[in-house]
Design brief:
By secondary structure, the chain is an alpha+beta fold. The protein has helices at residues 32-53, 70-76, 134-139, 169-181, 199-204, 266-271, and strands spanning 19-22, 27-29, 80-88, 91-100, 109-118, 121-131, 144-148, 208-213, 219-227, 240-248, 255-263, 276-278. The chain is built from six helices and twelve strands. The chain is elongated.
């Protein structure tokens, strides 16, 4: 089952000011300078290989900063991950690959990152770059493919700990209904992972909580929070919201997270303002098990 809503955020810091890449292998660093000094030879080797393969007709290196916004999206929700045992001698690199649509260009944009992974989580990026060269992307599809989004069974908007990620029918049905009524100008579904870090704050410090019961006795509780817009993602009025949809257990009044999502569509937000308007104090938030 999906875990219960957590009342207190987990503290992810390890050590006082230390940068932890892989504690099990002793990869703990005092600061960024020490970190990059450790990986400098690996970075140089990967950069050398990259520049030897890059075509002059591809995106200019001076323009790379314009595309760096795609790196967090790629790391959060790649289309492919290839475990590459050959690019660095005696070490394993994970090649994250994704493609993104750009309104200003008809050409397909790819983003590639070569990553150190700890416990299935990206912990250090050796090299990352945008490209429109499919031949170049193909060169990073080497080794063993360990993840392929096209073969994923769960929805793109599913996140760890919610019922949608476990394909629970209620969560899937409500999620698909939400996708169908979203405005075309709203956030794209593939961008949802970029906003997952807003989920806990929405649940713990909501602006609004709405509780309703359907004809089958299912109790839904919607947590809504408005956030300060980030440049380039707000709507014309400047608002953006995050919504977490939960199911209440009548016997305990605890809430199971079904799914969550960002939106800048006021009419969509209004759909989740129905039933009883509650205060945060009336909602019991259980720790996860």
């Amino acid at each position: 089952m999906a875990k219960k809503i957590k009342k207190v955020k987990e503290n992810k810091k390890e050590g006082a000011g230390k940068i932890v890449i892989d504690a099990a292998l002793g990869l703990v660093f005092a600061d960024e300078e020490e970190l990059f000094n450790h990986f400098s030879r690996d970075i140089e080797a990967l950069e050398k290989k990259f520049f030897a393969q890059k075509k002059d007709t591809d995106i200019a290196v001076d323009d790379y900063t314009r595309f760096e916004k795609y790196l967090p999206k790629l790391l959060a929700d790649p289309q492919e991950i290839w475990r590459d045992p050959k690019s660095l001698e005696g070490k394993e690199v994970n090649n994250f690959i994704g493609s993104f649509d750009e309104k200003k260009s008809a050409e397909k944009l790819f983003y590639v990152a070569q990553v150190y992974v700890t416990n299935e989580t990206p912990s250090f990026v050796y090299l990352h770059f945008p490209t429109r060269d499919e031949d170049l992307v193909q060169k990073y599809r080497n080794g063993e493919i360990v993840y392929d989004r096209s073969k994923r069974d769960t929805a793109i908007g599913a996140s760890e700990g919610d019922a949608l990620s476990e394909r629970e029918p209620l969560a899937e049905g409500l999620y698909q209904a939400m996708i169908k009524v979203r405005s075309e100008s709203d956030f794209k579904e593939e961008d949802f992972p970029e906003f997952f870090d807003l989920r806990e704050e929405t649940i713990e410090e909501p602006d609004e909580i709405w509780r309703s019961r359907d004809a089958y006795g299912i109790i839904l509780v919607n947590f809504i929070k408005e956030f300060r817009p980030t440049e380039g993602i707000e709507n014309e009025e400047g608002e953006m919201y995050y919504i977490a949809v939960t199911q209440e257990d009548p016997s305990t009044e605890s809430h199971m997270l079904l799914f969550s999502f960002p939106t800048n569509d006021k009419s969509l937000v209004e759909r989740y303002r129905h039933g009883e308007n509650m205060t945060a104090e009336e909602v019991v938030q259980e720790s996860s098990h």
